[in-house]
Amino acid sequence: MRDPLHPNQFQVNEAWIAFQLNDAPISAGKDGAFNCFCLMDAASCYLLGSELISASQLEPSGKQARDMLTAAWAKKGEFPRTLLLPTGCLQGALKAEASLLGIAVVSASEDELLVFIGEAREGYREHMQR
Q: What is the CATH number of the domain that holds 68?
């Protein structure tokens, strides 16, 4: 078993985390429902970008995955060495696109990632309850 993950283990832009921000699909009326997938820097917990994906899709398409990574690159000017993905989630197009870019992909449980993504999720929940 590895040591628990923590932001202080990373340098800025060394690793990014991909995750789903919302617990339940976001209703957009006649446009349908969406899930919000985000990329976050592991060291700073800074959100690098997000993409709304139809709730009928389990994860981003190849184009959406490229768009997410490209938008984050535009903010940082480089790609990370590692992309952390929740175990059993985002293992398709985003994992493939990251691998094509030479980014090592590592799976981690949702529980391990909460130290990074928990505050963003809680802020989102509070915003939606208003």
A: 3.30.420.10
